[in-house]
Fold:
Amino acid sequence: MEKSRKGLGHLKALMKFLGNPKELEGPESFYLKLFLYLHNAYQMQSMAIWALPQDYNHKSERAPMRPRLVWFQGAKRPIYKALPFQQKLERWEKNKGLLKAPKHINLFFSLGTFGGHRYYLDAKVPTKASVFLELWDYTREYLENMFLLSNRLAELMKVKNLVHIDDISGLYNQRKLSIDLRELIQSHTQSHGQFSVLFIDIDHFKDVNDNHGHVIGTKILAELAKTMRARLRDNDLVYRYGGDEFVMLLPNVDPELAKKIALRILSDIRSRPIVVDGGLKFSISVSIGIAVFPRDAESPEEILTIADKMMYEAKRGGRGRVCYAGEVLSMLKSETPARSRV
Structure:
């Protein structure tokens, strides 16, 4: 009875540690939280998640299949050959996912199926965790439910994110720009940092649509989006604002670096003709305007308006150029604000 009470207490502790399911961002956050619990509670040093096709049957298949490593935490990346993994499937299947050794307990069981694959948890915990395993069947069922829930939450997040994706370019859209720009201003205000906004417009794109049609124009936009994405750091963001206009947000980037990045983008686009429909080749140029927070503006509307104006200054200067707000700010302050952007 005492062991059962302790086992129930450990199960409650596990449930409490994993916390509110709404806090789980997906399966990887579930794996990490589970590992942290087992590591903190029982000094477990490593854990791995493996996957096999859902329709794979190790009892009937002639050739063993090597599992795919989905996630692991530990000092060394685990490696499984096909035959040992199949033997492990058979061995632990008879022991309900548990096998006790003198110094540790092996945990190996199926978390469940999702997306056409079955996922397995593979870990070792010290023998002191035996109290935790008193209610193993309940624990395993709880973990299976959490695994399924975390995957469904991840799928829901993907659907939710589609609202912020532009269909043509695959980039974020204007709605997402509005959200991210406000968050960026808030975070950089708190950290007293600066970030740069690049407003990009394709030169003479109307001529492309008029002469070759909007289908070709759409394909050019998609290819151009790839070129711009390739120039970004992991924390940079790029959006299709509408038509042939794009916006980039560059966190923690000062005016000098912003100009270098803009010039590299301009050079890349100019030097690499876009080929669509297997042979149609287009030489594209863009005009880029730059504004920096908080040096040039302190609100979302104002910083986009200034970057927009700088883009038009680049066009007036001959197109295929970069224009930075700091170089002509005195002129801008005397003008009426341009189009509202957010």
